[in-house]
Amino acid sequence: MIIPAFDLIDGRAVRLYQGDYLNKKNYDINLSCCLEEYKSKGIKIIHLVDLDGAKNSENRQIELFEKILSNTTVSIQIGGGIRTTKDISTLLDLGVKRVVIGSSVIHNKNKVKKWLKMYGSESIVLALDIKINNNKKEIYIDGWQKRTNFILEEIIEYFLPSGLKHILCTDISKDGTLLGPNFNLYKEITNSFKSIHFQASGGIATLKDIISLKKTGIKSVIIGRSLLEKKFTIEEAFKCWQSES
């Protein structure tokens, strides 16, 4: 599945390079029009990142999301600083299809297990951001600023008994670079965890990247900058994905 992505600050679409708020690029787009266009082209779900909420939970863009969800029928997946049960309930009550949990996966593992049970595996996506050091997939949190003592595989194993199904896995070194994804990473983890629906994110620059990602066995690919900068069209991306089915 192709999942277009929009990172949002104060209601505007932006891209951060390597997660750096000081290295930001603005895009002049009409988000509501983009969502409807993508839906008309066959897209099933859109990924939105609340960068304001990620930086400060008091600044969550709830009014914006409420407006978006009342004006579109395409499914929405939202991440960015979601830390509490109230955060999740508020978004799901608005009509969000899936809520993406990031740093809380490490900070509050027991709470995340409860969320998986409470809301169901279809409503929760774990965002696991990694850097590969000495062949270890080390997890980073808090806007990629903090290296944890956990590796990707052990965190997946920890949550599997709680019904974990959806994981958004990003190789931080690739994000926002347009240098191509880490194909070996996705091939390895899809082979190791066949019950997980992995979403690949980071580095996608060409249609060939999409075809190669599909061959790794991942279920979805999140595409942000390359669509915003018209490296290819949504129709071309969708066609590539379908042709590899």
Topology of this protein?
Elements: E1 2-9, E2 12-17, E3 20-27, H1 31-40, E4 45-50, H2 51-55, H3 62-71, E5 75-79, H4 85-94, E6 98-101, H5 104-107, H6 109-119, E7 124-133, E8 136-141, E9 146-151, H7 152-159, E10 166-171, H8 183-192, E11 197-201, H9 207-216, E12 220-223, H10 225-228, H11 234-243
Parallel strand pairs: 1-4, 1-12, 4-5, 5-6, 6-7, 7-10, 10-11, 11-12
Antiparallel strand pairs: 1-2, 2-3, 7-8, 8-9
Helix pairs in contact: 8-9, 9-11
Can you offer a commentary on this structure?
By secondary structure, the chain is of the alpha/beta class. About 40% of the residues lie in helices and about 30% in strands. The protein has a single domain, classed as Aldolase class I (TIM Barrel, Alpha-Beta Barrel), CATH 3.20.20.70. The protein contains eleven helices and twelve strands. The chain has an eight-stranded parallel barrel with strand order 1-4-5-6-7-10-11-12, surrounded by six helices. Helix 8 (about 185-190) packs parallel to helix 9 and helix 9 packs parallel to helix 11.
CATH architecture: Alpha-Beta Barrel
Shape, please? globular
Distance between the termini: 10 Å
Helix content: 25-40%
User: Could you list the spans in which at least 5 consecutive residues all have pLDDT below 50?
Assistant: none
Structural class designation: alpha/beta
Count of alpha/pi helices: 11
Describe the main β-sheet briefly.
8 strands, parallel, barrel
Number of domains: 1
Overall residue-averaged pLDDT value: 92
Beta fraction of the residues?
25-35%
